[in-house]
């Protein structure tokens, strides 16, 4: 079972601040740059995450149309050509320059509602040699688990949220239990108080 200290660490950012947030509205996904087979894998992983968390999916978001966008591409320079993306991503041009300078192959950005809950997430995956070698199921599950909560910028650096069971890659049971607890309706959708980790740990304990 994951304890309160481990949970607090997963939501404590590199600057020492604690910040927890979950989605505050149904997730309306769209995926760009993949075949139909890969699209089915991504949506299947997202549907499984919704079953786990008890959260909801929707065909459209009333404000944004789609609020969870996943982009697969070969070169960061492709992004400025995506119509309207510069309106969704502040300072897109300097962001691309920075990502290219560190040879990044993935990036994730969240938008929040007035209460601080997640209202949108944009995931960018540059399919270089490293990411192309990852099975589609593993890549999809990894990205979705990292997008379903506002994890710390240092979360999962030392250990993946996924585990291997036989020939399958699955979500680690402790991470699955934490996500389920985080979406418990009695829990707040947003918290900047480290004591929230204690409440999450208690919910995990009750579930197990």
Description:
The chain is of the alpha/beta class. It folds into 2 domains: 81 residues, no CATH class; 126 residues, Chitobiase, domain 2, CATH 3.30.379. The protein is 37% helix and 18% strand. It has 8 helices and 8 strands; from the N terminus they run αββαβααββααββαβα. The strands form 3 sheets. The chain has a 4-stranded mixed beta sheet with strand order 2-3-5-4, covered by helices on one side. Strand 6 and strand 7 form a beta hairpin. It starts with a helix and ends with a helix. 26% of the residues are buried. The mean pLDDT is 94.
What is the gist of this entry?
This protein is α/β, with parallel strands linked by helices and 208 residues long. It folds into two domains: 81 residues, no CATH class; 126 residues, Chitobiase, domain 2 (2-Layer Sandwich), CATH 3.30.379. Helices cover 37% and strands 18% of the residues.
């Amino acid at each position: 079972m994951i304890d309160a200290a481990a949970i607090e660490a997963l939501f404590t950012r590199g600057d020492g601040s604690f910040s927890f947030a979950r989605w505050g509205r149904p997730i309306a996904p769209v995926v760009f740059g993949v075949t139909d087979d890969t699209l089915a894998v991504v949506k299947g992983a997202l549907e499984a995450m919704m079953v786990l968390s008890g959260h909801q999916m929707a065909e459209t978001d009333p404000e944004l149309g789609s609020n969870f966008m996943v982009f697969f591409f070969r070169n960061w320079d492709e992004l400025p050509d995506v119509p309207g993306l510069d309106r969704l991503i502040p300072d897109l041009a300097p962001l691309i320059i920075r990502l290219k300078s560190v040879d990044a192959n993935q990036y994730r950005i969240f938008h929040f509602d007035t209460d601080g809950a997640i209202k949108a997430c944009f995931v960018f995956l540059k399919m270089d040699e490293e990411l192309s070698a990852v099975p589609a199921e593993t890549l999809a599950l990894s990205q979705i688990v990292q997008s379903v909560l506002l994890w710390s910028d240092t979360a999962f650096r030392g250990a993946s949220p996924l585990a291997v069971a036989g020939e399958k890659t699955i979500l680690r049971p402790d991470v699955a239990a934490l996500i389920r607890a985080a979406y418990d309706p009695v829990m707040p959708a947003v918290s900047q108080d480290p004591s929230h980790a204690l409440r999450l740990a208690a919910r995990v304990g009750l579930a197990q």
